[in-house]
Amino acid sequence: MKRSAFEYHLPRELIAQEPLPDRDASRLMVVYRDQEKLEHRLFRHLPEYLRAGDVLVLNCSRVLPARLYGVKEDSGGKVELLLLRQVASDSWEALVRPGRRVREGTRLRFGEGKLHGVVLKRLDGGARLIRFAWEGDFDALLQKLGEIPLPPYIKKRLEQPERYQTVFAREPGSAAAPTAGLHFTPELLQQVQAKGVEVVTLALHVGLDTFRPVQEEDITAHRMHSEEYHLPEATAEVVNRARCQGRRVIAVGTTVVRCLESVADERGFLRAGRGFTDLFIYPGYRFKVIDAMITNFHLPGSTLLMLVAAWVGREKILRAYAEAVRLRYRFFSFGDAMLLL
């Protein structure tokens, strides 16, 4: 299957540059797998589509202040890091700009010398392995020196960084937000639970592939960068019990889909634990766990668009995207949402 089969035309002005004042005021397009109709609602109407016994699974990963600005110690040249994944107590995988000028052995300085780093080696996908040195508490230092990284298509400065965190974010580790969850408010979650919906969490820490497009025209040649997950025992038990009883499991976001599908056995039952997944879902994939998903509108040719196409069908999702463009929906991280039933 070709990458070009997942392209679509998107006017630049439809890329949302900031969140709406109210999280749940985003629009919600409802797409049915077995019907051609589309419904156009607001996200705050989501409880109308849920029923008692459903299980709603959220990604509670929290975005790190993972963007660091510093200099090269030898020349004073400016350097920007995007921390992707901690691989040891003092070492991280990171994207580096300008990459061509930051070679192995380059020494870096951040925060007027409060944090030092050295480039150990180049990694696949253009990342670098960086070893840091500092005094005191690294997490506190990162909170002081780092910035919340926004995707490159968002050009406007975010005045309230917490708007790029979900209201249920609690496990630090992501380089980007699991954006489907950004639409929820505490009040909306209370409404969902009041209907008898069980709400559970897992963590999948969003990493490199959020920033790395599919380059290969043959999408089967694309290789996903592995991302860390944590599936709690309580979440596995709730999902497994729901599946035994024939109740729906609804994933909030493609990250939740990938985590659940990665740890499921062939019968669709989960085993709790921590690990890494590089699962790439595209049309032809046989889903084992989920019965519905909530997601945002994704970039043309992206692995995320391929995943939702695997759920509802490529032609149907592209027709839905064309309708979203016609009706001036807002796209990407701070944009509107879809409910795929």
Q: Describe the main β-sheet briefly.
A: 9 strands, mixed
Under the CATH scheme, the architecture of the largest domain is 3-Layer(aba) Sandwich
How many individual helices? 6
Strand content: 25-35%
Rg to the nearest angstrom?
A: 20 Å
| Quaternary structure | single chain
List keywords for this structure.
nine-stranded mixed sheet; 341 residues; Thrombin, subunit H; alpha/beta; QueA-like; 17 strands; 6 helices; six-stranded antiparallel β-barrel
Description of the molecule:
The chain has 341 residues and is an alpha/beta fold. It folds into two domains: 243 residues, QueA-like, CATH 3.40.1780.10; 79 residues, Beta Barrel (Thrombin, subunit H), CATH 2.40.10. The protein has six helices and 17 strands. The strands form three sheets. Strands 2-1-17-16-14-3-12-13-15 form a nine-stranded mixed β-sheet. It has a six-stranded antiparallel beta barrel with strand order 5-6-7-10-9-8. Strands 4-11 form a two-stranded parallel ribbon. A hairpin with a 5-residue loop joins β5 and β6. α5 crosses α6. The radius of gyration is 20 Å and the shape is globular. The two termini are 24 Å apart. The model has no long low-confidence stretch (mean pLDDT 95).
